[in-house]
Amino acid sequence: MYYEIYKYSKYLGLSVNSNHDFNEVYLRSVHKVLSSALNEHPRTLMFHVVLRYPENQLGGIEGSISRFINSFREKIKADCERKTRLHKNVHRTSIRYVWCREYSESMKEHFHVFFLLNNDTYFRLGNYFSPKEGHLTWMVNTAWASAINISWENMPGLVEFAGCKTINARRIASSHVKERDGVLRDSFESAFHWMSYLCKVATKAYGDSVRNFGCSRN
């Protein structure tokens, strides 16, 4: 597969991790998804999950990431409809996402996924250790269980919540925060820097006719 390597420390004025070479097509897609989310929802909840297969499974399951995304969409839709029936105030949300397929040193296939939702619809993930129906943590776990056809009881360790933050569309100097690498960034810059991890060339398998990267189109 042909791809353009991007070796610079910034993309469209936004910092990326200079320790990696990036696929420029992927960077372009991440920027578009992030910008579209904030154009629609000025306050956007973004969270990162890592999805793994059971240890005794030798390879990935074809179509699992697509089934996971579709299942998660359906759970969001059902949750909003349930709240509407209960006469709760429900804010509309689009569901935007970016995912990549990677391999660990032991060649275990896994996925990284970023979701971007309206922060007025969901402002937190819910309980990590004991997810309850209606929590985003529950929706993610049960969607992945369904996608790889295992029971909910066998899920521990297969879903990792790797972080969550609220992004603000307004980019003002006073909103900058010093991050772990010592750089001051506002929430948009920070979100793009974080999401750019999915665009690195390393740890991906090219040429096996299976997609390494995908994102929402709306």
Outline the fold blueprint.
Layout: E1 5-6, E2 10-11, E3 14-15, E4 22-23, H1 24-40, E5 43-52, H2 64-85, E6 96-103, E7 109-118, H3 136-147, E8 159-168, E9 177-178, E10 184-185, H4 187-195, E11 213-215
Antiparallel strand pairs: 1-4, 2-3, 5-7, 5-8, 6-7, 6-11, 9-10
Helix pairs in contact: 2-3
Organism: Vibrio hippocampi
InterPro entries: YagK_YfjJ_C
Pfam families: YagK_YfjJ_C
* Straight-line N-to-C gap: 25 Å
Estimate percent helicity. 25-40%
Order of helices and strands: EEEEHEHEEHEEEHE
How many domains, as an integer? Answer: 1
Helix/strand structural class: alpha+beta
Q: How many strands? A: 11
Computed CA radius of gyration, to the nearest angstrom: 18 Å
Number of helices: 4
- Mean pLDDT equals 90
Strand percent estimate: 15-25%
Largest sheet: 5 strands, antiparallel
Globally, the shape reads: globular
